[in-house]
């Protein structure tokens, strides 16, 4: 747990914006402003067809490794992990609630499982499908292919999916967001974002497509940052130029205020990190209290050449002016640890091992505001 304290309140939301051009010689000091390359309104999710077409195992693009930063040398993280838990502790006392099956992996590897919980509903995304449940476990919509939601939008979002879906429940607005990467045959890519028109996740959604041109906006992670002004859906990406070399992270924000009312001019503001930093997570508000106005978006990353360091950056957004400001990193010391191997985690009853993502921090980066401090987990 990282104690953010009053630092959080001095930050301003920042967003990331992308151009529709190729980033051949990107000036990382500039704000990248991207407007939707497509806008539409979806059918009701409850009216979309059930997807029963995917039963054969299919390989999907895995999250690409974030390269080690320069000057990485052998160190304590390649030795015995001194902070690894080695004993089994008593179970936490809890009363089991409703248990029901969600979507299967629909034959895709990796499964990219993700879900969000609202007052009355649960929305789940699993790679290329989504489903909506009530809290008793009854299916209200789906499972449906995510592309069918974005069909009215056209472009990359309706052509094929690169996966990496995210679903959010925006608590202050009581609305839902579903996103994923769309692509034309692995040659061009876009971030596809759907925001529900009402608090009913089985209803219609406003659809937005943000083109990345010939770059791959890999591993997008989204969050809600509902400040009174410059309110944003924050997002982070690992950018691979021409679907090839990694060139750094983009830390961004979508204009949440416009998205909630279906404004087709909702911008995305982005800043690229210097060098080849990557694997950032955006701050996602928890609890009933929204971040104080003027609080920038927070982004955190583990620097994988030094397991003892986290980087915290602050992104300040100005949607009216089309600008974003990215702070220098604040270094946070944490205990050294041994990075997990890439594919070696054993399972009971099979020789099939599990993959890990030991080169990055795990989604979500949850921030809760209290009367006298803030906590980030």
Which features characterize this protein?
disordered N terminus, 377 residues, globular, 3 helices
Q: Radius of gyration in whole Å, from Cα? A: 20 Å
Low-confidence stretches: 1-25, 68-78
Largest sheet: 8 strands, mixed
Q: Globular, elongated, flat, extended or rod-shaped: what is the shape?
A: globular
Number of strands: 26
The overall pLDDT, averaged over residues, is 85
Question: Helical residue percent?
Answer: under 10%
Instruction: Give the DSSP E fraction (strand runs of 2 or more residues).
Output: 35-45%
- Provide the structure class: mainly beta
Could you give the distance between the termini? 5 Å
* Number of alpha- plus pi-helical segments: 3
Order of helices and strands: EEEEEEEEEHHEEEEEEEHEEEEEEEEEE
Summed up:
This protein has helices at about 145-150, 155-160, 255-260, and strands at about 1-5, 30-35, 40, 60, 110, 115, 120-125, 130-135, 140-145, 160-170, 175-185, 190-195, 205-210, 215-225, 230-240, 245-255, 270, 280-285, 295-300, 310-320, 325, 330-335, 345, 350-355, 365-370, 375. By secondary structure, the chain is mainly β.
Written account of the structure:
The protein is mainly beta. It is about 5% helix and about 40% strand. The protein contains 3 helices and 26 strands. The protein has helices at about 145-150, 155-160, 255-260, and strands at about 1-5, 30-35, 40, 60, 110, 115, 120-125, 130-135, 140-145, 160-170, 175-185, 190-195, 205-210, 215-225, 230-240, 245-255, 270, 280-285, 295-300, 310-320, 325, 330-335, 345, 350-355, 365-370, 375. Strands 1, 18, 19, 20, 21, 22, 25 and 26 form an 8-stranded mixed beta sheet that branches. Strands 2-17-16-15-14 form a 5-stranded antiparallel beta sheet. Strand 19 and strand 20 form a beta hairpin. The longest helix has 5 residues, at about 145-150. It is globular and about 55 Å long. About 45% of the residues are buried. Residues about 1-25 and about 70-80 have low confidence and may be disordered.
């Amino acid at each position: 747990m990282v104690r953010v304290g009053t630092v959080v309140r001095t930050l301003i939301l920042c967003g990331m914006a992308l151009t529709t051009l190729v980033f051949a010689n990107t000036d990382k000091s500039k704000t990248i402003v991207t407007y939707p390359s497509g806008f539409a309104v979806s059918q009701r999710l409850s009216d979309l067809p059930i997807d029963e077409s995917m039963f054969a195992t299919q390989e999907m693009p895995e999250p690409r490794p974030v390269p080690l930063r320069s000057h990485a040398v052998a160190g304590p993280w390649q030795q015995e992990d001194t902070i690894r838990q080695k004993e089994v502790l008593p179970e936490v006392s809890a009363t089991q609630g409703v248990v029901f099956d969600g979507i299967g992996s629909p034959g895709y590897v990796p499964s990219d499982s993700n879900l969000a919980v609202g007052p009355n509903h649960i929305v789940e995304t699993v790679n290329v499908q989504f489903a909506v449940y009530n809290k008793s476990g009854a299916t209200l919509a789906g499972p449906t292919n995510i592309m069918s939601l974005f069909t009215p939008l056209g472009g990359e979002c309706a052509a094929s999916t690169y996966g990496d879906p995210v679903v959010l429940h925006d608590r202050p607005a009581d609305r839902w967001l579903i996103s994923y990467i769309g692509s034309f045959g692995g040659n061009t890519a876009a971030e596809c974002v759907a925001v529900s028109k009402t608090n009913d996740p089985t209803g219609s959604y406003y659809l937005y497509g943000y083109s990345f041109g010939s770059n791959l906006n890999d591993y997008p992670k989204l969050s809600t940052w509902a400040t009174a002004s410059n309110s944003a859906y924050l997002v982070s990406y690992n950018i691979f130029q021409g679907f090839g070399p990694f060139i750094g992270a983009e830390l961004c924000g979508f204009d949440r205020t416009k998205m909630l009312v279906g404004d087709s001019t909702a911008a995305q503001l982005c800043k690229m990190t210097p060098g080849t930093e990557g694997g950032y997570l955006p701050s996602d508000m928890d609890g009933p209290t929204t971040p104080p106005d003027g609080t920038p978006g927070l982004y955190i990353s583990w620097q994988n050449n030094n397991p003892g360091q986290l980087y915290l950056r602050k992104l300040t957004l100005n949607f009216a002016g089309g600008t974003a400001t990215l702070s220098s990193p604040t270094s946070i010391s944490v205990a050294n640890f041994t990075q997990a191997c890439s594919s070696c985690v054993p399972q009971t009853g099979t020789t099939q091992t599990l993959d890990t993502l030991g080169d990055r921090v795990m989604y979500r980066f949850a921030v809760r505001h209290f009367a006298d401090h803030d906590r980030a987990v």
